[in-house]
Amino acid sequence: NHAIKGYKDCKSITINGVLISLRPEILLLNPINNQPKGSIKLVFGKNHFLTIQEGQCISGLIRSYLENELKIKMDYKDCFTLDVFSRRIIYSPVKNDWTENKIQSACDNIKNIWPTLNKN
Length: 120
Fold this sequence. Notes:
Structural class: alpha+beta
Number of helices: 2
Order of helices and strands: EEEEEHEEH
Strand content: 25-35%
Helix content: 25-40%
């Protein structure tokens, strides 16, 4: 058994005032010691296929979270997003600091724009 269903202890995180849910559907395990080594996030977007940047942001953020939470180092190719309908695998970026900066910037934008939206 080299994978399990999700990571049940995965919590949501808040970045710049925006709550983000981080629930990978599959947690990959090292076959030697059965410890976590990566994750797979499934995306089912019928009307929108993920761009490479979107997929990297998703898988990179999950990778950062799991590395910090589990105190392990993961290979970028072991953390990926599977865009099911486009049948494409998008790996987390090699240098994950790009992802964190991109997510922080996007959350800043969301935090500033959200109160101005019409709630109807």
